[in-house]
Every structure is written in structure tokens, then in C-alpha cells.
Amino acid sequence: MSSIEVIGKEQLKGELKIQGSKNAALPVIAATILNKGISILKNCPKILDVVHMVKILEELGCKTSWDENTLTVDSSMANITQISESSVIKMRSSILFLGAILGRFHEVTIAYPGGCSIGKRPINYHLNAIKKMNVTQEFSGEDNSIIHCYSDKIIGNDIFLESPSVGATQNVLLTAVFSEGVTRIFNAAREPEVTEVCNYLLEAGARICGKGTSFLVVEGVKRLNDVEFTLSPDRIVTGTYMAAVAATGGDVTFLNAPVNQITSTVRTLIKTGCEITSKDNTIRVKNTQRAKSLSLLKTEPYPGFPTDMQSQVMSVLCVADGKSIIIEDIFESRFQNVSDLVKMGALISIEQEGRKALITGVETLHGTEIYAKDLRGGAGLILAAMVAEGKSVVHDASYIERGYEDICRDLKTLGAKIRMIT
Ligand code: EPZ
């Protein structure tokens, strides 16, 4: 695992272009199975999770190639309907292939992806929904961890999601594209990454209404065509670097930012004292003072404050002026950073079965050795190291490479003293 060294207390200045979105790329990569042809995906981030998903495409019989940040997929020869357990364990987002493979081949065998450090990550909403589309589900293997779904004819139906799950919404969409009849998804997730899958499928010739809302309607079609599609910039990477300015102070303009997807993050950072202005697809963040505390910050489904930004803002609040409360309402254990932040001198206590963090801002943190435990937590520790006195080393930094093309390159461009040391 790699480690990143940071010398704290450097203000950030300058301009930075935002990479393509990880959480848009992953479901769209899975969706390329459906068109039995060519998909050209532009602005695709070269990150570990994408590399893993592309490997799975090749396992399934697809041909892939890269040209800079353009990924080309030819799924015409895909003929495998099973994803190996080793691939699933390494890449939980492979569960997004469930709907795509089932939608195209009417059969799929995939291992239960299992949980991760932020939560159990069950897929009951996915399976309950797909079962209603004339799909038989059988379970085998140790702990019934191998899922085999098949159908002689996938039939559209009314699907009521128990909660607006992003992955479940995406899997139902992918299963429904070639189905008989109409599928109506009630309580669909509204995250931009769901809209991104809708946009890719519409570009390929699918019939979908209601994108961006919690009510999606899919009318099955016979086939899809080749697609050329540009992925959105990453809203969480944008928010991460905006939070870095909120923490360290400075004046940074982000180019090619998904301005219309980050309203709740902008609103939150303005409350911490940032001055934020935007024009077309650029957004400028200025902060010349100590961050202000937040009386209450709660993570919610989109368009609420994103859970994927929670660790980063927690680092800002550790050095804010006053007491803050964060409620993590999406995942059951997403305060993984707290022990490391406390080691750096933060004052944080956890209540309500790990869902509520009470933070008392301190003047400064102290650099030390800290350990990333998940992707966004790792990014949060980088921000904490950037506001700390002295040197920090963030170990297990490979977690961060799952979602950030090159966090060291990006932050160094803005003046941070940061480098990969192993
Ligand atoms: C997506 O995960 C994102 N991943 C996550 O980003 C993000 O945190 C999450 O949405 C919420 O916005 C990708 O897009 C690849 P959910 P997903 O299904 O689809 C529970 C990152 O850092 N649930 O909306 O797995 C689940 O346990 C990652 O980029 C069930 O109980 O999220 C969680 O508590 C982390 N049963 C909540 O719902 C189910 O069948 C939200 O999960 C499905 C979900």
C-alpha cells in the first residue's frame, strides 16, 4: 500500500481542472454490455476502480482500449454471464453488472459483493426489485453467496424501492432496457450518477422518462446502437478540493466543474465561511479566515448533503471555530477517521450508535502517522494533514487512488506540500 507525506499549513492558490466522475463511469461501464457494439466514453477517469471494472468487461468477452482519458468498449463479442468471485470481492461495484448482464443475456451469476469498512452494503433492494420482473433468483455456495438470476422473458413492472438506493435504481434501469412492456421505478435515487446512466442509455436509443426525478419510466426496446458519450466531471472530487480550501484558506478556481451537481456542498462550505462564486462550468472558492463551525450537518440522499463528502468536511470542522455536529444517516460506520483525527489533536466524540459525531474545533492539529481505511476517509485525512502543524504521513493511501486520479498532482498544483513516498 502507498503512503503520502504532507507538510501542513500551506494555503491553496491557482486553477485546477476536475477529472471525470468515478461514480458516473462505473455504472456506465457496466451499461456498455447492453448495446452489443461500440461505446466511446470520453473524460473517463483513470482510477483503480475503473481499471477493475474494465478488467471485468474483458473477463466477459469485451474488447477495450484507452486513448488518454477516452475508453472504447466493444461489447459485440461479450458472451460470458458469470463474474468470478475474486473479481466481485475486489470490486464491489461489479454488482452493477448484474442488471446489465441480466438485461442482455437473461441470465447472470455473480457473488454477493459483501460489505466494506463503511457498512454492510446489502443488495436486498436490488434483488427484491429485479425479482418482480419475472426473474428467478437462486442462491448457492458458502453462505448462499453466489446469486444466479435467470428469466425466459424479462417483463416490466412497477418497482417501489424501499429507499432511494443509487445502485438498486441503476440495476433496475439496466435490467429494464430490453424488457417487455414498461417498468416504473418509484422512489428512485436522484443522484447525478443515475441521471448519467439514463443519459448514456438514451444516447444509445433506450426509452426512459423522468431522469433526475424519483419517478423513472422505462419502456423496453429491441436493441441499442453504438454510443459516443462524455462523462461528467466528478462532483465529489470537486467538493473534496473545495473543502481543502475551506480548511487551509486560499483562493482556487476549479475548471470544468459540475457546478449544477454540487449545490448542497456549496451551501455547506459557504456556511463554514467560504466565498464561492461560479460562472458557466468554473467555480471559485476563497477563504481568508478560520472556518466556522456547523450546528448540524446531516448526510442525505441527493440533492441533500452527500455522504461521500462527510469525511472531508469533518476534517474542516476539526479546526473550525466552535462546536459542530455531524449526523451520518446513509452508512452505518462512516466515521472511520475519528481515531486518527483524535491522534492529530482533534476533539471528537461519537454517539447514537456511531451515527452522530460531536466535534469541538481546535486551533490546530498536529502532524503524525495516520491510516486511511476507505476512499473518502483517506481524502479526509489528506485534508487534515494539510491543516496540521508539521509533517504527516497518510498510510494505506491506495484507497484514495480508487477514486482520485492523482490527488498529490492536483493538490501540489495548488501549492500544497504533498508527495507520494512509497
Ligand atoms: C453509491 O453506492 C456510491 N457508489 C457511493 O459512493 C455512495 O456513497 C452511495 O451511492 C450513496 O450516495 C457508487 O456510485 C459506485 P446506495 P451504493 O445503494 O449504490 C443501503 C464512494 O465513496 N442499501 O444508495 O452502494 C446501503 O447499505 C462510494 O464513491 C440497502 O440497505 O449506495 C446504504 O446504507 C461509497 N440495501 C444506503 O442504502 C440495498 O439493496 C445507500 O446505499 C442497497 C442499499
Shape, please?
globular
Number of helices: 14
Strand content: 25-35%
Task: Note poorly predicted spans.
Answer: none
Which CATH class of the largest domain applies here? Answer: Alpha Beta
Q: What is the number of E strands?
A: 23
Biggest sheet features: 4 strands, mixed
- As a percent range, the share of helical residues equals 25-40%
The CATH homologous superfamily of the largest domain is called Enolpyruvate transferase domain
| Cofactors, ions, other ligands | ligand EPZ
What class would the helix/strand composition place it in? alpha+beta
Can you tell me the CATH topology of the largest domain?
UDP-n-acetylglucosamine1-carboxyvinyl-transferase, Chain
Radius of gyration: 21 Å
Question: What is this structure, in a nutshell?
Answer:
Helix content is 31%, strand content 25%. The protein has 14 helices and 23 strands. It is globular.
